[in-house]
Specification:
The protein is an alpha+beta fold. About 55% of the residues lie in helices and about 15% in strands. Strands 1, 2, 3, 4, 5 and 6 form a six-stranded antiparallel β-sheet that branches.
Length: about 190
């Protein structure tokens, strides 16, 4: 048995009341706590000496400890633990166990509905991040189009993200709209 397994089994024993059983994974750097509806994976990265925790029900329903603590708004933890040397792995397991215990005090993740709520929160959060990313790219492209005199493309990109525009960008859009209106009248 690996140290990771032994430390996880001892410090995550509180999860037995939720039906989880500690299980050694294929390698000594991973341990799973297997429940009726999902599992909790504890992984140790040898490269960065980082301990992480992931919750999985199936391919579509998965989230990290960071996602879960954001969902329940536990501010004093960040969900990962980086140890200075491998000999201090137990300190990291104690830290993760404390975070997971606080998490379960707020929401029972062994419950399928609660698990799905957090998994959906993760998907929504990632969707928002992607939308924000693409909005910034489009606005940057609109600025380039503005500089190149490509006003119809600038207008298209600005209007696509109108709620995210700065005051200066709104002024540019208003200018383009007035210009287009004048051009339509002269035809």
């Amino acid at each position: 048995m690996s140290q990771l397994y032994e430390f996880t089994k001892n410090h995550f024993a509180f999860l037995q009341r939720y039906g989880y059983i500690c299980s050694q994974a294929d390698n000594e750097n991973s341990v799973s706590l297997v429940g009726k509806n999902n599992r909790i994976d504890i992984n140790f990265s040898v490269v960065g000496y980082e301990l992480t925790c992931q919750f999985t029900a199936d391919v579509k329903n998965t989230f990290t400890l960071q996602d879960a603590i954001r969902y329940v708004d536990i501010k004093e933890f960040n969900g990962i633990y980086q140890i200075p040397r491998k000999e201090e792995i137990e300190k990291g397991i104690i830290y993760l166990a404390d975070v997971v215990k606080r998490l379960f005090d707020k929401i029972d993740i062994s419950d399928t509905l609660n698990f799905q709520k957090i998994a959906q929160y993760r998907l929504d959060m990632h969707k928002e991040l992607l939308e924000d990313y693409y909005c910034k790219i489009d606005i940057k492209r609109a600025e380039e189009c503005w500089k190149n005199g490509e006003y119809s493309k600038t207008q298209e990109l600005y209007e696509k993200h109108i709620s995210s525009l700065s005051k200066a960008q709104i002024k540019k859009l208003e200018y383009i709209r007035k210009k287009e209106y004048r051009n339509e009248q002269s035809i």
